[in-house]
Amino acid sequence: MYPEPNTDSPARLSTRQTGSPYTARNGSPKRQLQFYRNLGKSGLRVSCLGLGTWVTFGGQITEEIAEQLMTLAYENGINLFDTAEVYAAGKPVLAFVSLSTTLSPVFHRRSSLVITTKIYWGGKASLERLQLEYVDVVFANRPDPNTPMEGDPFNTSKSRTFIIEETVRAMTHVINQGMAMYWGTSRWSSMEIMEAYSVARQFNLIPPVCEQAEYHMFQREKVEVQLPELFHKIGVGAMTWSPLACGIISGKYDSGVPPFSRASLKGYQWLKDKILSEEGRRQQAKLKELQAIAERLGCTLPQLAIAWCLRNEGVSCVLLGASSTEQLMENIGAIQVLPKLSSSIIHEVDSILGNKPYSKKDYRS
Questions:
Q1: Which of these is catalytic: 87, 182, 197, 253?
Q2: What is the DSSP letter of 133?
Q3: N or C: which end of the chain has fewer CB within 10 A?
Q4: Would you call 120 a catalytic residue per the annotation?
């Protein structure tokens, strides 16, 4: 696992915190250091909770609600907002398309925000849609299948490791041109990330600082086993998404798929099938047991699930999704649950889940 930082380190969420991690002062949030973590081993400080825009923004909610969510998130200490050029079919999905006019009473300074975006087919269009001069982190979303591989590029059996020199050079160019401050990977394997780092060091280019990965109670292997090794070796951190497993862990699907839920949306038949499968029914049974733990802790099941993700010291930021202000405030409340996650509670959760991954070190010991 990741190293246990000093308890006085500002990069760590304080487990001794009793009040809210943010309090208003003169209409602006007071940013306490315990609410922020470094993105990997970079110098970029991000709120441990970020607001994502996948599915909800430009899909389930109106621009008015999107603006309300972003304002509420910022007022409650969240400084990281994540998007991608292909969300909402490439439309301007963020409510702050123009930061200088739409939310100027809230977002006093661009430097107070951490805006991240993903690219796969292109790049500059994201800045134009956001009406920004730069983003803080640009993610290369999935390895480009057209980049050459070791040996014969048409013989994929020779090596599964992408040598992504073109990608690393492109990201370095984006940063050198002032369009981004850092770059990271999204849905890359640990081997591919390590290869990108090696290429960067070999050719004096800029390596990635973060991997954006799915992480929740039913998806653990990558973040808990693979990424810690990269953190130790090359300082790559983890920004995780879908802490509620696309809403599965919210508890809303315990009696099937309700109308207007994500699983009922067009294009999400895969999620509906997953929920109604035999594995989905087993997961719902486990969630009922976890609900009992949440009730003992005085929180909701989603709050328990998000706090469970935050308890991982290697996770720099957990991206939240919300379609209402009530849901967002509930999710932010997970911060108050984190200090309650004792080792005995974590052990109880692991026993119910039955899917704790083991690293090579665990097997040797």
A1: 87
A2: S
A3: C
A4: no
